[in-house]
Amino acid sequence: MSQYLFRLPDIGEGIAEAEITAWHVKPGDHVREDQPLCDVMTDKATVDMSSPVDGTVVALHGTVGSKAPVGSVLVEMDIEGGTTEPAAVAQTDVTANARPGEGRAPLKVVPPAPVEDKPAPTASPATRRRAMEWGIDLADVDGTGPHGRILVEDLERHRGEQTKSAPMPRHKVEEIPVVGLRRRIAERMAESKRSIPHFSYVEEFDLTELEALRTHLNANRHDGQPKLTLLPFFMRAVVKLVPEFPNINAHYDEAQGILKRFAAVHVGIATQTPQGLMVPVVRHAETRDVWGCAAELARVTAAARDGSASRDQLSGSTITLSSLGPLGGIAATPIINPPEVAILGPNKLVERPVVEGAFLARRKVLNLSGSFDHRIIDGHDAASFVQRLKGLMEHPALIFMD
């Protein structure tokens, strides 16, 4: 029996450290090759760390939420055969980068007596995180996915059965660490509200004509063309207005006092995923027609939801669209994604009676909620931009006219 040290590998792209977002093993567990050990997060991408060897876990280094530099020891294991790593653990492990009270010492225990091996449950990082949040041991869940893989639906079913058999006490208090992507979101939102003087502007759009056009295009689309939502039309309308309102499509560098106005339009799409809110980017919307915007929108949002989005796909936006779809309500006050200076939030599309002359007509209307950085965009400019956007969206032929 010898000791093996599993170290945080070089993930690439100049990443120097990663945050531990979930542990899938504990001291005393016997693990097999390719079995998940933990999840780590770099920037906004979560990576599943798997064991390269069979062995028994002796110690874990770092707690959920602590940060580990590349090359630091994450897991100590006892394995059969010769050792390829020195048994001594360097003192410059995750404790050097841990937050106060976290990751101060390795968690060492004496391995328990051997027990009969049981196949480790398989599940995606998102499913494992959901199980951790709900306090569910994956070993207790029957998986219905391929080869017994545990799906989110299996967790929901198991949770429902637990609730029926043992209702949760009314006075129970759960303490859930805010770590990983959720912590990043919290930090960025707090930074945005602290540093940016937001102001919001809401306007009603009559999209009856646009909805008729969208319905017609969807009914006659060719094989391979994606189904059109409202967002590709908003993208194309914004592209058309950027030359007239260049300050809208910009970044503000507060430290240097510089406004960077972009000719390219990279549209961030606020997307809810199992891991939390992400903003995948449709790059160069100015080079795409409405079908191209729709196809790229579907591609990058799907990648964000299934956890396969690359770092480049989740950064570099110049303006953000945040649509709540059918949950969009009447109005919102969206938070700007720094260093951007504007965010647009289409709300729910509804059918309402509208007065047209002496008659009432049924029209499809939507409220657009926009938030702007008042350091860069004056109220008049924001209102003018939204009114011009309203004109394009209410008369959609103008979107396609030079």
Please explain how this structure is put together:
The chain has helices at 125-134, 152-165, 180-195, 208-219, 231-241, 290-306, 379-394, and strands spanning 2-7, 17-23, 30-31, 36-42, 45-50, 55-60, 67-69, 73-79, 107-108, 198-206, 250-253, 258-261, 267-269, 271-273, 276-278, 281-282, 319-321, 342-356, 359-373. The protein is of the alpha+beta class and 402 residues long. The strands form five sheets. A six-stranded mixed sheet has the order 10-19-18-17-13-16, covered by helices on one side. A hairpin with a 4-residue loop joins strand 11 (250-253) and strand 12 (258-261). Helix 5 (231-241) packs across helix 6 (290-306) and helix 5 crosses helix 7 (379-394). The longest helix has 17 residues, at 290-306. Mean pLDDT is 86; it is low at 86-113.
Strand and helix map with partners:
Layout lengths: L1 E6 L9 E7 L6 E2 L4 E7 L2 E6 L4 E6 L6 E3 L3 E7 L27 E2 L16 H10 L17 H14 L14 H16 L2 E9 L1 H12 L11 H11 L8 E4 L4 E4 L5 E3 L1 E3 L2 E3 L2 E2 L7 H17 L12 E3 L20 E15 L2 E15 L5 H16 L8
Parallel strand pairs: 13-17, 17-18
Antiparallel strand pairs: 1-8, 2-4, 2-7, 3-6, 4-5, 6-8, 6-9, 10-19, 11-12, 13-16, 14-15, 18-19
Helix pairs in contact: 5-6, 5-7
